[in-house]
Design goal:
Layout (H helix, E strand, L loop, with lengths): L4 H13 L1 H11 L1 H4 L6 H13 L11 H21 L4 H12 L5 H9 L3 H26 L8 H29 L1 H9 L3 H22 L6 H28 L3 H9 L3 H11 L4 H42 L4 H9 L3 H13 L6 H7 L12
Helix pairs in contact: 2-11, 2-15, 4-9, 4-11, 5-6, 5-8, 6-8, 6-12, 6-15, 7-8, 7-13, 8-9, 8-13, 9-10, 11-15, 12-13, 12-15, 14-15
Length: 376
């Protein structure tokens, strides 16, 4: 069997596309081993935040009104879902509330970039969401866990704040200090920002391993309840992707808005669950994490296939162009292209006079007619 450079590239491309799904499977199989590394989760999370914030200067952040809409959906939605579901099932209500309250994962910026979305938009929302959760979680967690938080409300607020604030704020202030006092070192850290994707995979190993290990050794074997909370996590995840993408379509930010609202920092929620909530909520969070990572892996794979098709179409276009392609063949070729590619190529051809054929130049001076390559 031949093992050339092309084969190795295909193998690495496959592993990159499905890294998250592979981490889920390996974490579930080796749960007894990976569960031992659960105490490292806060440090891995701080590492991911540091890599993200090191490339995020306060002066470079561009806030959009859509950020406030997303934050309102995240915070208000968590309280509304809890109030609606608590009379029916308090555990399901806790699950839904925590899934909505959880801030956007720092790895969402990497995934958004791989999908072709706006990294600047989601980077700004990562900053807003993670900063807001430092103050929102201490207020909401004690309200949804009255049976598990036995200390007075104000004391529990301070307790949650003292646990969340160091994890979320330390990387932020450290990154800003590096930008201000050690810019050269910060530049080296920025070059390592791609590692956040693999830190996410490493945390996913510990998350899945800890959850599966907890279920295996748990004396509370209620399969119906476990299935119900797992389905709750999947439904909330799917709902947030749908709402985010639908809302983003109105502002031409479908990818970045969908990832901002739905790709969650489950590791922070998992840690809060083991500290303050019913441990069964971890099953919901694990199901949410599994589904969001399967969804992201599928999006990355589909994007790679789409890019490959576009590359083939562009190659065919250039071959036909240099072969003096006729208008009928040109129209047939562009009929198979996605509309966004047609528009980009049309703009490129029209802006390059040496690429235009004489009949296209004639169209350029006629405002009432369109060149053959344009389509509505």
């Amino acid at each position: 069997m031949e093992c050339g450079p092309d084969l190795m590239k295909r193998i690495f491309a496959f592993l990159k596309q499905w890294t998250l799904l592979i981490a889920i499977v390996i974490g579930a199989i080796g749960h007894s081993f990976f569960a031992r590394f659960a105490p490292l989760a806060p440090w891995l999370l701080m590492g991911m935040l540091l890599l993200t914030f090191s490339n995020m200067s306060p002066r470079d952040l561009r806030f959009h009104p859509l950020h406030l809409v997303l934050l309102l959906i995240q915070l208000a939605g968590s309280v509304i879902f809890y109030l609606l579901l608590a009379p029916w099932n308090p555990l399901i209500a806790q699950c839904a509330c925590l899934c909505l309250l959880t801030p956007t994962a720092t790895a969402a910026a990497t995934i958004t970039g791989m999908l072709g979305g706006s990294v600047a938009f989601i980077a700004a929302y990562i900053f807003i969401g993670n900063f807001a959760i430092v103050f929102a979680a201490p207020l909401i967690i004690p309200l949804i866990a009255p049976g598990h938080v036995s200390i007075p409300f104000l004391s529990s607020v301070f307790s949650v704040f003292s646990h969340v604030a160091p994890i979320m704020l330390t990387p932020l202030f450290l990154a800003w200090a590096m930008q201000r006092f050690t810019p050269k070192f910060n530049a080296k850290v920025i070059r390592l920002s791609f590692l956040s994707y693999y830190l996410w995979a490493a945390m996913l190993l510990t998350l899945i391993g800890s959850t599966v290990d907890m279920l295996v050794h748990s004396e509370r074997m209620d399969y119906g309840l476990e299935i119900a909370v797992a389905i709750t996590g999947v439904i909330i995840c799917l709902l947030q992707f749908a709402v985010g993408k639908r809302l983003g379509s109105l502002y031409h930010r479908r990818i970045s808005t969908g990832q901002s609202l739905a790709q969650k920092n489950i590791f922070l929620s998992m840690w809060l669950t083991f500290q303050y909530l019913d441990p069964m909520v971890a099953v919901c969070l694990a199901a949410y994490s599994v589904f969001q990572n399967i969804f992201n892996s599928a999006q990355i794979a589909l994007k790679a296939r789409s890019d490959e098709r576009v590359r083939r179409w562009l190659h065919a276009y250039h071959e036909y162009k240099h072969a003096d392609m006729k208008d009928e063949a040109r129209t047939a070729l562009f009929a198979a292209l996605p509309s966004r590619v047609v528009k980009e190529l049309t703009m490129h051809i029209q802006s390059s006079s040496w690429q235009q054929r004489p009949d296209e130049r004639a169209y350029a001076g006629d405002e009432g007619r369109k060149p053959p390559l344009e389509r509505d």
